[in-house]
């Protein structure tokens, strides 16, 4: 009888130990699974996007930056190009991946890679005004209406921290590879002129983004944000674009590979 009681207590302790280990492993799987996914981030951004993030991105970040690219890459037919209105729509960007890089080539305290897919809703609304040169359009302004946009990017972000507010000193951003970009553009007619048919304008917007991205924002080029200036009451000159021309190009073709070590989070 005593032997049976001892055996029963042993079985009970063993069962509890196994249940504890199973719960612990289940918890660890859940933690690792959620930490590797970005569902939590997408859910948060989706809720906050229409409240404040869209306005911050479009009005505080993109509107000051876009004129730099328009001025640098405007076509010969345009004397000036300005963004008159920018609303990115109700759809928030979707983050497809996130990982921390453990080696920083410079003095960044933290380096991350983010994958993002941004497909705007049908309520996106942006107006780009182009002032044609006098010999083409008598110096008149013509407008383009951007009604849709699709962006797929992988961006690298370097962060340098501070010990006091705003706790971030600098952000450095660049594209890991040339992004995919498409947009829907319709002319807003001005005196019967379809500005998209003007020589140099028709293909300008398509070339603008690919050229601008490739020459100025794809690694090793980068956008550098001075967070202290950006957070000041009167933000001025808070970003610079560092264009680092590569010294050489190498084309590598992998013919065969075996026993490769997985480097991505998904294996």
UniProtKB/TrEMBL annotation:
GO cellular component: membrane
Keyword match Transferase: no
One Pfam family it belongs to: SMP_MUG190-like
UniProt xrefs under InterPro entries: Ext_Synaptotagmin/KAHRP-like (IPR052847), SMP_LBD (IPR031468)
Domain SMP-LTD, residue spans: 34-228
Subcellular location: Membrane
Molecular-function annotations in GO: lipid binding
GO annotation (BP), single: lipid transport
This protein's record includes keyword Membrane: yes
Top-level taxon of the source organism: Eukaryota
Keywords on record: Lipid transport, Lipid-binding, Membrane, Transport
Transmembrane segments: none
Name of this chain's protein: SMP-LTD domain-containing protein
Species assigned in the record: Gossypium arboreum
């Amino acid at each position: 009888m005593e032997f049976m009681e001892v055996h029963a207590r042993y079985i009970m302790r063993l069962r509890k130990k196994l249940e504890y280990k199973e719960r612990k492993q289940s918890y660890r799987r859940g933690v690792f699974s959620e930490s590797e996914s970005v569902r939590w981030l997408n859910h948060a951004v989706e809720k906050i996007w229409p409240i404040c993030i869209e306005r911050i991105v479009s009005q505080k970040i993109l509107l000051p930056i876009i004129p730099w690219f328009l001025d640098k890459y405007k076509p010969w037919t345009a004397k000036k190009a300005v963004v008159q209105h920018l609303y990115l729509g109700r759809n928030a960007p979707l983050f497809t991946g996130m990982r921390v890089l453990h080696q920083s080539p410079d003095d960044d305290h933290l380096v991350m890679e983010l994958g993002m897919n941004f497909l705007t809703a049908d309520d996106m609304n942006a107006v780009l005004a182009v002032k044609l040169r006098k010999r083409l359009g008598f110096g008149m302004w013509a407008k383009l209406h951007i009604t849709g946009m699709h962006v797929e990017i992988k961006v690298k972000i370097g962060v340098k921290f501070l010990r006091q507010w705003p706790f971030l000193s600098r952000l450095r951003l660049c594209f890991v590879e040339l992004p995919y970009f498409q947009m829907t553009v319709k002319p807003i007619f001005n005196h019967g002129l379809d500005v998209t048919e003007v020589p140099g304008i028709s293909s300008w917007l398509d070339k603008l983004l690919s050229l601008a991205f490739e020459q100025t924002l794809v690694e090793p080029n980068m956008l550098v944000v001075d967070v202290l200036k950006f957070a000041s009451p009167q933000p001025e000159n808070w970003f610079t674009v560092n264009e680092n021309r590569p010294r050489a190009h190498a084309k590598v073709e992998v013919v065969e590979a075996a026993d490769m070590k997985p480097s991505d989070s998904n294996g």
